[in-house]
């Protein structure tokens, strides 16, 4: 099993506050790895550093041996590591299909001027974008809402739209930001199946941060646990369930935040 | 040196007051009030009318400026800004409204008071002179003191009064304030009135020194925008800091660079741009406030 | 790629016919040659406003177009008077120069968003005016005067454009030139908005972070768009300078920058042709109210406010967003 993504000694400090301290782990090709931890454990900070939405204080993140931390977000996306957002971050006044067409920016072969003048390559691109968008919409089961404005969609569909936008870039690694937050059991199970399908059928490696424990246990190949900015455990779901440090960390925090 | 500091304080205090009103309106309603400079000019003309023309005591004329502008601000908020904010799909639409208001005020001032520069009798005569190291007319000292007093009064009001606390809650988070039971519509109106009143108050104070004319509105707005940018939009301490900084820059520029004409402002603009490139949210603003 | 339907083709044909045949015929019949000046101004102002509109399209409120119009006017005037260049060559160069300045200024200030960008752009006009006053090459407050009218352009002895100075009616020639430029500008804008760049702009307008996450180099697109916007401002300014045959530091002021913005708002920010309609209505509205003398500004601003109350989303919102401009 090869290491697709390597997080090496990553540390983030905000002023005197250490949000992440010396975090190291690897993500293997074609696996689903979850980063979990109680609120304030530093999950989302780590997530932002991996996608270069935040610079690291020290340490680095490698993708296929190439550094992807401390770059511009769009450069990281170009390399094939793409993040999603929580549901409020969408293209509000575009339809589902329009959003997916725009999100194929990285697949464009013609230049911007080429599109302006309408060259042959540009025409081919436009056709292929439409085709790819329709395929993706069908793959994700979004055909009935393909022409709905994003701002009119219910929450559950917005989450799926976020993943669709990410997938439209044809990524190698998809970083999911709390894909199950605020969902009931049925919705969570649907999302779990969707994420699995993305990995199984499209061969996309998935790294997600989440604090919904049952869903994470269900979906993950491996889990990394953070607490107070420190990495306290790494292993398969069953390892993690029996890890004393993890149990302590979760018992120490407010029960209602864990979602068990 | 002493002279520059004194001039800086004098300019800074009046600028800070202008910026306070603008930033208050911005913080509460996310409205960039283009008409702020015109409100300031209007305040000047009201004091001019009551004190200069009708011979009222200065303090009463000043009060008249405050009341006129406060009422005007409240009406504008209730009948113009609130409906447009409610119905428009983009928040920028309020900018068009504000620009239209700036034109409207200019037109009203032109019709009622004409284009000429107007002045009023001095409130106190005489000049403070400390060995020719520091020369300042007494009326400037008085106005400066009044401006500082008003700023302190405003801060105390915002900090300790019930209205002030509600306004601060509203500025911080509109939805949360609503949930806490703050009457958002009512306090938006009060806030706008307060912001307009501050503009009118400075106008009334300064008419005794610089006089007032129609053309002062636009440039005053631009200066106010700059101060707000320096300090950070929507932050009270930022507006005061921005005002004082601009006041001092101007005082220094006028003393050092006066022989080069308008170059002071060119330099201020350029440094402002460099500053904002490094710190886009201003000195005390929240990022992307 | 957008395809026009029959109705849109008919509209376009009617528009071109009106601009290039009906209006000149009307002026010839009625003898109101002053209309040429008004309409030429509308055409040129709408070009500059189109630029402002484009910056709106990436979610930036641009109140600084006057600065770039002034830069364009000076660039062309200096090239024509000091370097003896043909106006027709100086025109694109003036646009390019304005675009170049926009790139330099844009690098720092385009990082700002919302009100911050609006405020700093408002300050830009003042900066350029003060620079023009301070620099020797712009001749300070005296400005550049007696700029010669555009000369002839001929290729292989064939005169494509006659020397404006020899024309009986240079106003008509300027009118044709301005309208031709306007038509080209808006055709290009329509094309641009409906091409990939337009889609990317729209994605940035709605959410810059999400746009970055799908690989859009947002800083680059912002600069390109601002440069195009300022190019249009420069072209408009250069044409104005040539018509007036003079440029002063006060040729374009903060109020002009605000007006460019108003044109866009009034026409509607969601519609490519919004700035054209907005400019026409505002400029003609102002002109028609001239009869009112001292009440002109009062009525004008009053109407503006009422319009805002009735149609807060712009004039073209009456059509409820069908066809026309919104890229789809």
Q: What does it look like?
A:
- The complex is a heterotrimer of chains A (260), B (289) and C (328).
- With 260 residues, chain A is of the alpha/beta class.
- Chain A has eleven helices and ten strands.
- Chain A folds into two domains: 1-80 and 174-188 and 204-260, 3-Layer(aba) Sandwich (Rossmann fold); 88-170, no CATH class.
- Helix content of chain A is 40%, strand content 24%.
- Chain A is globular, with a radius of gyration of 19 Å.
- Mean pLDDT of chain A is 88; it is low at 254-260.
- Chain B has 289 residues and is mainly alpha-helical.
- The relative contact order of chain B is 0.21.
- In chain B, helix 2 (36-53) packs across helix 9, helix 5 packs across helix 6 (162-172) and helix 5 packs antiparallel against helix 8.
- Chain B has helices at residues 2-29, 36-53, 58-87, 93-113, 138-160, 162-172, 174-179, 184-210, 217-231, 236-257, 263-278, and strands spanning 127-130, 134-137.
- Chain C has a single domain (32-319), classed as Orthogonal Bundle (ABC transporter involved in vitamin B12 uptake, BtuC).
- Chain C has helices at residues 6-30, 34-57, 65-81, 87-109, 114-134, 170-193, 196-206, 208-213, 218-244, 254-267, 274-288, 296-310; strands at 153-155, 158-161.
- A two-stranded antiparallel ribbon of chain C has the order 1-2.
- Classes of the chains: A alpha/beta (260), B mainly alpha (289), C mainly alpha (328).
- Chains in contact: A-C, B-C.
- At the B-C interface, helix 3, helix 4, helix 9 and helix 11 of B face helix 4, helix 5, helix 10 and helix 12 of C.
């Amino acid at each position: 099993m090869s290491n697709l993504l390597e997080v090496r000694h990553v540390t983030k400090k905000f002023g005197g506050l250490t949000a992440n301290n010396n975090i190291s782990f690897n993500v293997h090709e074609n696996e689903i790895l979850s980063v979990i931890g109680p609120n304030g454990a530093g999950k989302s900070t780590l997530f932002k550093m991996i996608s270069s939405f935040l610079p690291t204080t020290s340490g680095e993140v490698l993708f296929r041996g190439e550094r992807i931390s401390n770059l511009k977000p769009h450069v990281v996306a170009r390399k094939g590591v793409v993040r999603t957002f929580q549901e409020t971050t969408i293209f509000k006044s575009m339809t589902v299909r329009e959003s997916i067409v725009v999100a194929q920016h990285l697949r464009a072969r013609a230049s911007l001027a080429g599109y302006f003048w309408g060259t042959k390559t540009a025409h081919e691109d436009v056709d292929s974008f439409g085709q790819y968008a329709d395929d993706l919409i069908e793959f994700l089961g979004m055909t009935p809402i393909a022409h709905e404005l994003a701002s009119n969609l219910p929450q559950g569909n917005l989450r799926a739209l976020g993943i669709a936008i990410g997938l439209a870039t044809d990524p190698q690694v998809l970083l999911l930001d709390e894909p199950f937050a605020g969902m009931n059991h049925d919705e969570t199970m649907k999302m779990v199946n969707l994420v699995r399908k993305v990995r199984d059928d499209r061969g996309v490696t998935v790294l997600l941060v989440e604090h919904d424990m049952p869903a994470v246990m269900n979906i993950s190949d491996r889990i990394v646990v953070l607490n107070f900015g420190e990495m306290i455990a790494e292993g398969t779901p069953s390892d993690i369930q029996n890890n004393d440090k993890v149990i302590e960390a979760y018992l120490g925090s407010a029960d209602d935040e864990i979602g068990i | 040196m002493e002279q520059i500091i004194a001039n800086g304080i004098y300019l800074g205090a009046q600028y800070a007051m202008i910026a306070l009103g603008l930033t208050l309106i911005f913080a509460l309603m996310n409205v960039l009030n283009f008409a702020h400079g015109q409100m300031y000019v209007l305040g000047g003309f009201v004091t001019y009318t009551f004190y200069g023309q009708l011979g009222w005591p200065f303090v009463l004329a000043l009060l008249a400026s405050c009341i006129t502008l406060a009422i005007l601000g409240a009406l504008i908020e209730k009948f113009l800004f609130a409906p447009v904010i409610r119905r428009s799909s983009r928040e920028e639409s309020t900018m068009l409204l504000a620009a239209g208001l700036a034109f409207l005020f200019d037109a009203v001032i032109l019709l009622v008071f004409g284009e000429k520069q107007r002045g009023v009798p001095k409130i106190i005569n005489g000049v403070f002179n400390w060995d020719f190291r520091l020369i300042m007319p007494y009326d400037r000292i008085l106005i400066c003191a009044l401006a500082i007093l008003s700023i302190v009064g405003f801060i105390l009001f915002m900090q300790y009064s019930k209205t002030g606390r509600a306004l601060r809650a509203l500025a911080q988070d509109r939805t949360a304030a609503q949930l806490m039971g703050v009457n958002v519509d009512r306090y938006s109106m009060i806030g706008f009135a307060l912001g307009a009143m501050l503009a009118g108050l400075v106008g009334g104070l300064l008419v005794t020194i610089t006089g007032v004319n129609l053309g002062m509105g636009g440039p005053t707005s631009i200066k106010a925008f700059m101060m707000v940018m320096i300090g950070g939009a929507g932050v009270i301490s930022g507006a005061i800091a921005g005002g004082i900084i601009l006041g001092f820059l101007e005082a220094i520029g006028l003393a050092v660079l006066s022989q080069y004409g308008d170059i002071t402002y060119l330099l201020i603009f350029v440094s402002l741009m460099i500053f904002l490139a490094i710190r886009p949210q201003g000195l005390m603003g929240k990022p992307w406030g | 790629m957008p395809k026009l339907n029959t109705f849109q083709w008919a509209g376009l044909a009617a528009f071109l016919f009106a601009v290039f045949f009906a209006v000149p015929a009307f002026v010839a019949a009625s003898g109101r040659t002053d209309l040429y000046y008004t309409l030429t101004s509308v055409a040129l102002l709408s070009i500059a406003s189109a630029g402002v509109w484009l910056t709106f399209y990436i979610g930036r409120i641009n109140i600084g177009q006057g600065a770039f119009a002034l830069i364009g006017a000076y660039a062309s005037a200096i090239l024509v008077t000091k370097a003896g260049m043909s106006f027709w060559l100086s025109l694109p160069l003036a646009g390019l120069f304005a675009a170049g300045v926009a790139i330099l200024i844009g690098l720092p200030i385009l990082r700002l968003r919302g009100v911050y960008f609006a405020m700093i752009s408002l300050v830009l006009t003042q900066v350029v005016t003060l620079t023009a006053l301070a620099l020797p090459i712009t001749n300070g407050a005296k400005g550049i005067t007696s700029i010669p009218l555009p000369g002839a352009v001929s290729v292989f002895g064939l005169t494509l454009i006659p020397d404006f100075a020899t024309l009986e009616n240079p106003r008509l020639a300027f009118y044709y030139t301005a309208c031709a430029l306007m038509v080209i500008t808006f055709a290009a804008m329509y094309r641009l908005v409906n091409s990939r760049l337009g889609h990317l702009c729209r994605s940035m307008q709605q959410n810059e972070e999400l746009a970055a996450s799908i690989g859009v180099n947002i800083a680059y697109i912002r600069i390109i768009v601002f440069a195009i916007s300022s190019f249009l401002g420069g072209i408009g300014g250069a044409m104005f300078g040539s018509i007036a045959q003079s440029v002063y530091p006060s040729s374009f002021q903060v109020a002009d920058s605000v007006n460019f913005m108003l044109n866009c708002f009034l026409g509607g920010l969601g519609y490519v042709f919004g700035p054209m309609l907005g400019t026409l209505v505002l400029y003609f509205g102002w002109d028609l109210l001239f009869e009112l003398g001292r009440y002109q500004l009062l009525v004008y601003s009053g109407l503006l406010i009422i319009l805002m109350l009735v149609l807060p989303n712009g004039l073209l919102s009456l059509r409820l967003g069908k066809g026309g401009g919104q890229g789809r």
